[in-house]
Amino acid sequence: MGRSGPIRVLLAKPGLDGHDRGIRLVLRALRDAGMEVIYTGLRSTPEQIVRAAVEEDVEAIGLSSLSGAHQTHFIEVSRLLESHEASDVLLFGGGIIPRQDVEGLSAAGFEWIYPPGTTLHQIVSDLKAELRPESVQGESTS
Amino acid sequence: MYRGRVWTMRQYAGYSSPAETNQRFRFLLDQGQTGLSVAFDLPTQIGYDSDDPLALGEVGRVGVPISTVDDLDDLLEGIPLDSVSVSMTINSTAPILLAMLLAVAKRHGVSPDQIRGTLQNDILKEYSARGTQRFPVDASMRLVVDVIEHCSVEVPAFYPISISGYHIREAGSTATQEIAFTLANGIAYLDACRDRGLDLVAVGRRLSFFFNAHNQFFEEIAKFRAARRIWARICRDRFGIEDDRACQLRFHTQTGGSTLQAVEPANNIVRVTLQALSAVLGGTQSLHTNGWDEALSLPSEEAARLALRTQQVIASESGVPDTADPLGGSPFIEELTDQIDRAASNIIQEIDERGGMLHSIEDGFVRKAIEQSAYEAQVARDSGEMLPVGSEEGGEIPEAPFHVDPVVEQQRRGKLEQFKANRDLRAVDSAMAQLEQNARGTVNLMPSLIHAMESGCTLGEVSSTLASVFGEYQDHG
To answer: What is the chain A residue with the closest CA to B130?
Structure first.
């Protein structure tokens, strides 16, 4: 079941939002942690994101939105993944996401929604713990 | 300098629909605000109508949706355009919104020379920091200069550009990079105006700037002082402008949005107060103070009022505005000003040596430099070295106080359908054909844009016509 080798992650900004400070920091932190990361740039549509995720055979998709359009786009990405029979891909998100929206996103399959103030270390260690639990155990004993 | 008149209190606002935003504007004016500042939603900023499939989920979220002249008319209903100045944060589609504003003013019987306010119209920082670019850099620069040229003749009391460091800072730059990149963008605009053959004295007198007021109190004050000095040197030494007023740097300030914390958000009131004070001590011409709840959502009405009150307390109760440049002459502030001046001037020189700002934007130099600073700031925060007060891990984030009803998007589609049913299609087609032809040439596009808006074209139609001629800028991530 579990994969080995570097974790493959796709990061994307769905919709029209141009705030990419956070996602670029995450991109760098994941790469520094040895992951293979594809960032699709600004203004990706949910279709483009899911197509890229399937083609690139990623294990996780991280979405960022600070424009308030997360309900539309995040949930559409989750729906399209299902229709591509790729709902095993881990979903996470971040940005300005009102607390009252988090429950709905969790129900749609989002494992983590990172609010402002999250450390980069948190995101890296969550992904490792979920996708490469063996390596995390190895690290803690070394 | 504030003894004659304090700074303009100008709170950035816009959400949901033109009618709802009009209510917020009237509320803010009733509370003593002295100018308007329009926040547009992302579809409007990038050139999509509210009914465009690409606008899905974005309509009215971060600003007000404006697709037609009627929308802007609804937004400005009851606002006296000859006495209240209107600032519009719009870049890619700035010429279109200006055309709409002129059309609305005409309907209200206000002539172009009576219109006061500011158009952001600063496309260069979009490519490296803000992300609402639509067209390639060269076509965008033509549009920027078209606006400046048109306003210099037709709308002389209006500021046709606000060269903005605010977003560069929000994207993660240092204070020094903020002013260096902003002033380097200013150089690129003045170069383009000179290439167009415009009178640089007239242009210089109508330029305005926009900076961030961040956390480091004294550094920010020194930054504003250094920016004024460097810009005056650029105007005099590089462009040979001798007119003092044309060399003066006028600026708007907004307190730093990215400094606001979601945990214990009431603490943001104190952060905003200190930041606002640095802007005033630095001599800002106008000011926006953020709402304490803006790390959670757009500001609630209550938070927007408190933000305005913060400025009013500084203006009328603290005595701070009674002296111009009150910290001038302090050895510490003067030394800090000199340091920032030197460091920012060095960056500007480096950009010159790399072939200028347009090149440095297109090859990613500016973006990478900002990103590196953002990373260093994040590392300092994550390590606990620069951890904001009250935001230790585990703190609870409250619910967002403000919410845009998704039904707005449907209502907007209905409104546009109605607008399109009631217009003269022949007039629309002919105006679009004229615009397209002129876009392929080199004439100033403002007259064709004004004609298009008055003929019932929509923002989305005009933008896609321009994109069919200019192409779309591709973000490569």
So the answer is: A18
Q: Number of folded domains in chain A?
A: 1
Q: What is the pTM of this model?
A: 0.96
**CATH number, residue A98:** 3.40.50.280
Q: Which domain holds residue A82?
A: 8-135
- Asked whether the predicted pLDDT for residue A141 surpasses 50, the reply is no
Q: Which tens digits make up the pLDDT trace of B168-193?
A: 999 999 999 999 999 999 999 999 99
A3 part of a folded domain: no
pLDDT band at B33 (very low <50, low <70, confident <90, very high): confident
Partner B contacted by A44 (CB < 8 A): no
Domain-embedded: residue A140: no
Q: How many beta carbons lie within 10 A of that of residue B318, not counting itself? A: 11
Q: Please, what are the domains in chain B?
A: 8-382 (3.20.20.240)
Q: Cβ separation of A69 and B58 shorter than 8 Å?
A: yes
- The C-alpha atoms of residue A27 and residue A46 are separated, in whole angstroms, by 19
The answer to whether B466 and B99 have CB atoms below 8 angstroms apart is no
Closest CA to B79 of B96, B113, B54, B104: B104
Taking phi over 0 as left and psi of -120 to 50 as alpha, with beta for the rest, A85 belongs to left
